[in-house]
Amino acid sequence: MTATPDDLFAYLDTLGIAHSTQWHEAVFTVDQSTEVKRTVPGGHTKNLFLRDKDDNIILIAAEAHSQLKLNKLHKLIGTKRLSFGSPDLMEELLGVTPGSVTAFALMNDTEGRVRFLVDAALMEHDPVNFHPLTNTGTTTVSKADFEKFVRATEHGFEVIDFTQLLTDAE
Questions:
Q1: Continuous segment of H or E residues that includes residue 11
Q2: E strands of the chain, at which residues?
Q3: Which of 32, 56, 75, 138 could form a disulfide with 27 if both were Cys (CB 3.0 to 4.6 A apart)?
Q4: Are 92 and 8 in contact (CB under 8 A)?
C-alpha cells in the first residue's frame, strides 16, 4: 500500500526526525517553485527517476540548480545509458506520480529495487527540502535527519559530485 503524506509524517516522527511542511499550489518544475524557494530556507531539490536497459532503477535527489548531463551520467555511476523511467513504473515502485517524485518516496520501495543517489551540492545545505509524496507541499528536514531517513528505508546513501559531468571530456 502506498504511503500518504500523513504516513510519511508519522514515519518521520517514529524515527525522531523533526520536520515542517509548507503547503502550496502544485509545482511541477524547478522554475514553478521560485516562490517556495524564496519562503522556505535550505536546499531545494529536483528529483529524477531513471532506468537503464538492464532495468536498474535510479532515483536522484539533486540540488535544484545542478546541471546533470544524463548522456554522461551512466559512466559516472556504472550503469548502461539511462533514460527516464515510465510513470507506471514510478508509481509501482515509489507510489508517486510525475511532478511529485521525492526521496521521501523511498519508503514505498520496500523491495529495495531503487538505487538512491544524492547530489553533493545538495548536501552543502542544511536543512534540505522535498515534496512530502505530493507536489502541493514542501517538507523540511535537517541534512543529518535526511540521511537517517534514507538509511531507515534500507537504501544506500550515495553522494555523487555531479559537477564531474560538466567537463567536455568523454
A1: helix 5-14
A2: 20-23, 45-52, 57-63, 82-84, 114-119, 128-130, 137-141, 158-160
A3: 32
A4: no
Contact 32, 100 (CB under 8 A): no
CATH assignment, 42-161: 3.90.960.10
Give the DSSP letter of residue 43. Answer: B
State the Cα–Cα distance between residues 18 and 54, nearest whole angstrom.
38
pLDDT, average across residues 26-51: 78
User: Rounded CA gap, 69 and 52, in Å?
Assistant: 15
Identity of the residue numbered 169: A
Confidence (pTM): 0.90
Residue whose C-alpha cell reads 517538507 in the numeric block: 139
Cβ-count burial 13-44 (b if 16+ within 10 Å, e if not): eeeebebebeeeeebeebeebeebbeebebbb
User: Mind listing the pLDDT tens digit for each residue in 67-121?
Assistant: 888 888 899 899 999 999 999 999 999 999 988 999 999 999 999 999 999 999 9
